[in-house]
User: Fold this.
Amino acid sequence: MKEVRKPYFWEALVPAIFMMVIIILCTVAWGIEPHIPIVLSCIVAAFMAARCGHSWTSIVAGFLDSIGRAMEAMIIVMIVGMLIGAWVLAGTVPAMVYYGLELIAPSIFLVVGAILCAIVGLATGSSWTASGTVGVALMGIASGLGINPAIAAGMVISGAYMGDKWSPLSDSTNIAAATAEAPLYEHVRGMATTTLPSFIIALVFYGIIGLRFSSGSYDPTRVAEIQNAILGEFNIGIWLILPTLFVIFAAVKKIPAIPSLLGAAGIGGVFAMIFQGVSFADVLGAFHYGYACETGNAIADKLLNRGGLDSMMWTISLIIFALAFGGILEKAGFTEVILEKLLNRVKTVGGLVTTTILTGIACDFILTDQYLSILVPGRMYAKAYDERGLKRSFLSRTLEDGATLWSPLVPWNGCGAYQAATLGVSNWAFLPYAFMNLVNPIIAILFTYFGIGIKYKEGYGPKSKKEVS
Assistant:
């Protein structure tokens, strides 16, 4: 039996570079979906792992462990598909769009939408819930107001991840604190230094873009056509908004994500039978296949024809293959070797923060999983933060500043695949408009170099001889 050894640096780079090249070539140049390129990347990664002495059994264990850790998240993805189908059938999403078109002025839509998504994300601790509920409705409102769907999707992502990142109920928040061995609420408080300024800057950008959608360019006939199409398909009433309140109630009562989302989908099904007069069989069909109709209005049809378990299978298959690739890299020690090489070049606190953030972002691309992108650099860089007298909450904050916020921007990352499928916009399209996610890492790095918000342990600091620079 071949002895397992530590990979050489070039061996660790081969699967990572191969994946990036083959995915860019296939998706950009040839228009091929990323699934098969990632499968090919898994083969290359497995070959390199075998070269380092890992048996097939060990390689399988690596990717199965990675997939297993994300099984709950994948179940949530499927349930969100069911929820969207049920909420459209019930008239909940159409009602949110109908009233939103009346109440939200085009000029302030992006600012208001970002804040709404942030509130839902903060209350539920889930960017996925925020985008899968109020985010879906906001995308419909944006279409009615004539706002570019890519801009609207970027706004939803910014708000949802602002709330998720700062919520003590969030999985990523808890994982970052646990990985860095930092007290949860100290971690949450520490994130205010970079999160609040970044979100405010994002709101300013959305406000400036909103000025383009003045009353002069606003076409009320387009809105009326969409509203009439909705009224022709559904019985609309304000009570149809009630299922959204259950999501907030479940968050307050700290009901776990799976039962709360199933409950929200179930309530949607009941509302569909009561208020839309559909049968139980129709509800089950919406759970599985989503909602389908032809209203005669192209925008309304795009909004309403969505949801269902089936609609998430593309996303689930992509997540599985991507997690398999990341699991092989972690099992074979490839990520550890690459990160050790990076750490050897770090000399200052600013350099350490920059390296941590860029590593988290790189892991979002290479390991394809938000949790791994927090866990791997968190474990690798903890000692370096300790040696410089930095608080572990400073490490946990930095992990979120990079890994958490960039995860929805990567098409083959689990978060990115989910958001693109839910919002109906490709990641590359909404990436330039996800201002919160783009600005936050830059703010975190700049603040550190200017000495703002650095958290030292007692007795350490810029003027202390204990600091190791």
